[in-house]
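Q: Could you fold this chain for me?
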Amino acid sequence: MCGIIGLVGRRGYHINQLLYDGLTVLQHRGQDAAGIITENKGRYHLRKSNGLVKDVFFKKHMKNLLGSIGIGHVRYPTAGSSSAAEAQPFYVNYPFGISLAHNGNLTNAEEIKKLLTSAHRRHVNTNSDSELLLNLLAMELHSRTHNLNIDGELHVDVKTIFSSVSALHKQISGGYACVSLISGLGILAFRDPNGIRPLIFGSREVDGETEWVVASESVAIHALGFEVVRDVAPGEAIFLTSAGQIFTQQCAEETHHSPCIFEHVYFARPDSIIDGISVYQARLNQGQRLAERILEQYPDHDIDAVIPVPDSGRYAALQMAGALGVEYREGFVKNRYIGRTFIMPGQAMRKKSVRRKLNAIPHEFKGKNVLLVDDSIVRGTTSAQIVEMAREVGAKKVYFASAAPPVRHPNVYGIDMPAVTEFIANGKSVDEIGNEIGADKLFYQTLDDLIEVTSIKGVQSWDTSCFNGEYVTGDVSQDYLDALEAARNDSAKTAISVSDETVGLHNDE
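A: Sure. Below is the predicted structure, expressed as structure tokens.
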């Protein structure tokens, strides 16, 4: 999972600070690496490296990131890799000079790699499918503009750009939302035909000029003082010229809106609105429905308090407490300087990290029957340790609730979940999972309920593949899943060698 942003500011105004601020707001989408590329007077300026936004960009870097147009990226590692060479944005110098940042995952990446390297003799320098996307886009633009004379001022019909995106859609599969900076022209943004990964854009008027921003979530648009225009539609491309004009076009022959429901369960910020749905309201609804199901089964429950697992379990827990008629209490304090644990390679590292990340408040547990609420359960490592911590500080009974159904299948569209064999729900019943995490009783949301309460705008299709194994692109084979399993298991992640070497565009120090 990653976060992307693109900005076109008024001429003569440097947008480096806006890009930086936008990436900090999207930091929850990627804590492994960050990068910004800007263009000023025909020259690109790039800074990218491993680390949080605040640790990647210093004053000396910001002074070099000049220009009124640029894109940025925050990254989670893919299959455990955290090589600095795979930090984004990526860049190719022909045609024009194109950079790209990508959120998602291509399910036919191996085919695209063979096409690029064998048929088109393009060099691929990393294992990132984002680099493949960039090279394919460059190839399509080249094929439509190879006779173009770029001496002097550059002019390209926007239809040429959109036809390149159309050709791209026909060749690639998976979940993808992209922003691309094309030198001398503007910013191209596009979304996959199923709308799996989110993408939204906004604008504002400053001194009589229109400035534009496109980002993974609406929260980045609002935080920068822009107004949301709308979501980018599935299969649609938008082009923001350097002069502040906007062009839009549907570039896919067939579209089917099936956004990833896990955005509303876990990944997106609660203050975002994705495809017209409030993430905050969706999570409240998830808690309400789960509480109703608990009351149906256990009308005479003995729960004394509902306690969330911070942070994403908080909103469901808040609603559950009210619906169950019991106290809502904060029982855990979170150390916010520890990264998310479910993608950390190595079971020992995860166990150590959970204990550093959360600390229990004994007063809220001693002598009580508590219901702990989390957004989901993936490996179960965190859940088991949290249950153990609650007992250590005196809880009489520890119940556990997941606002999402059991995670039993891999996500292939950009969320780096572990191998299936490492899912705690793999091959187990709900009671068996509850026993494994040490809970007196475990409550799961049903998939039907999750879909119903998250579909605030009415009947809607979702990508729910990590819960039911149904992949909306229709091309995910068992061979692909087997290869994914081999790449994502702990031994594979531990064996990955991390290199900080990179070649290509100068990374402004």
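A (continued): Residues 341-346, 496-506 have pLDDT under 50 and may be disordered.
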